[in-house]
Amino acid sequence: MGIKAALYVHLPFCRAKCPYCDFYSLPFSDLEKIPVKEFLEALKKEITLWQPRLKNHKFVTFYAGGGTPSLLPPSFFEELFSFLKANLYFIPEEATIEVNPEGLTFENLLGYRRVFNRISIGAQSFTKKGLKALGRRHLVSDIEKAVTLARKAGFSNLSLDMIYAWPGENLEDLEEELKLLVSFEPQHVSCYELTPEPETPLWELIQKNKIKLLPEEKIIKFFWFIHEFLEGKGFKHYEISNYARPGYQCKHNLFYWEAKPYLGLGPGAASFLEGKRFKNEENLKKYLEALGQGQFPPREIETLDAEARFREAVILGLRVLKGISLPEFKKHFGFDVLTYYGKTLKSLLAEGFLILENDRLRLSRKGILLSNFVFRELV
Ligand code: SF4
């Protein structure tokens, strides 16, 4: 049978860095300079090095993220897939490629469709004002074009990413965004609050008081406005930041939230296998050098004991709004959630952050909004 697992590949290439982004990627204003061949060879080598310890794993989802995977040609992914199929037990039911709306061609999308059956478009905003505030390089018309071409190329499973609470956004902007977003009829929507990550240009502008984030009350209002709007259009809010039409939850991301095994390839990628967490260093040069010499890239390895795995699984599992099953956790980890967290859990329940119902523990409306606080209490 094999242990079901997810496979992620990190492609750390972008045209330019967006001011809010702290994902590991490098800007390539000249796309010709992306080391496509060398990177593919390094990935193949990394797969080969992992291969002996993955004989029991069956990879059922694949996700190409970044960075901007759509800067790479379809042939890159076709060759990578063939290699994965030849070297691992790799039969993905869901294979997602992240793309940016600008610079997509029908020919490339057709090529991607030969390998991928799901596409995630990094639209981020559906208004000119929002795209400008976020420092994005594309236009609203690029999103429309990307959706049309992706559909034409055969992608029937399409996700759109959106960032809300950008500086200057008001409720009318948000409503306009959402109306346009649903008019594209995506199967899945990810909505993230704009968060200034330390050391990013956005963070620095905020430190210098050059940009103001929206007040907390407004952000809360936006969060529930999005929830009501999308639920009203037939999407189910299934994870703190994610909505899907029935049957279209992201299978790959569920592996992370359900603390199931995953392998991450590429610089900066993380893996969770056999109770160990691996994190490749975020350094393309060192990644290529190490694999060029037939060695694993520099990485951190952490072994989690049963208790640490349990605590992590609780926190990740609560991100999914249906919550966690207490009997299943007891069976799987040997810990009783209620006894283990004792007083802390009692007070989170009493203060209305969590709900216990039919042997399941889940975030309440208040808990969804203050999930970071809840997770800090349970960590
Ligand atoms: S395109 Fe995506 S990965 Fe690249 S810098 Fe912008 S947000 Fe980050």
From TrEMBL:
GO biological process, one term: porphyrin-containing compound biosynthetic process
Chief location category: cytoplasm
Keyword Magnesium: no
Signal peptide range: none
Superkingdom assignment: Bacteria
Gene3D superfamilies reported for this sequence: 3.30.750.200
Any one GO molecular function term: metal ion binding
S-adenosyl-L-methionine among keywords: yes
Start and end residues of each Radical SAM core domain: 1-236
Annotated transmembrane regions: none
One of the record's GO cellular component terms: cytoplasm
Keywords: 4Fe-4S, Chaperone, Cytoplasm, Heme, Iron, Iron-sulfur, Metal-binding, S-adenosyl-L-methionine
A Pfam match: Radical_SAM
InterPro entries linked: Coproporphyrinogen-III_oxidase, Elp3/MiaA/NifB-like_rSAM, HemN_C, HemW-like, rSAM, rSAM_sf
Subcellular location, record wording: Cytoplasm
Alphabetical list of SUPFAM superfamilies matching this protein: Radical SAM enzymes
Family: Belongs to the anaerobic coproporphyrinogen-III oxidase family. HemW subfamily.
Cross-referenced NCBIfam families: hemN_rel (TIGR00539)
Protein's name in the database: Heme chaperone HemW
Species whose genome carries this gene: Thermodesulfatator autotrophicus
